[in-house]
Amino acid sequence: MATKGTFVVVDDGGREEAIESGGKVVNTKRKSELKEILEEVIKHFMDLSTMKAELARSQAHALQEGLDVNDLQADKRPEYLILNLC
User: Fold this and answer.
1) Which residue from 7, 25, 44, 85 puts its CA 20 to 30 A from 58's CA?
2) How far is CA 69 from CA 58, 73, 79, in A?
3) 21, 5 contact by CB (below 8 A)
4) Threshold 0.85, pTM exceeds
């Protein structure tokens, strides 16, 4: 284990080496904790954006079902208007 090695170096009189080794252990632990936190934050925002996209998709689908665009356009074609004028 890295911390045991740090204490052995201190006992041997290598204080600077022990401090450096201990610092590496702490930095490695901090980096892994920060990575885990960052992964959780990214996952949260990805889930949130997925939920919002699904909500928007379902709302658009509901609007599309409520409106039949083809029926609204059928009586407005130029051919239809010309034929009705005669």
Assistant:
1) 44
2) 18, 6, 18
3) yes
4) no
Written as one letter, the residue type at 50 is T
The residue among 7, 42, 39, 40 whose CA lies nearest residue 21 is: 7
DSSP three-state, residue 36:
helix
CA dist 81 and 66 (Å) reads 26
Radius of gyration of the chain from Cα atoms? 34
The phi and psi torsions of 75 (rounded to 5 degrees) equal -85, 5
The first and second tokens of residue 47, run together, are 């889930």
The answer to whether residues 37 and 45 touch, using CB atoms and an 8 Å cutoff, is no
15 sits in which H/E element? helix 15-66
Under the banding of pLDDT at 50, 70 and 90, the label for residue 9 is: very low
pLDDT digits (tens, 9 = 90+) for 37-80: 999 999 999 999 999 999 999 998 888 777 655 555 556 667 77
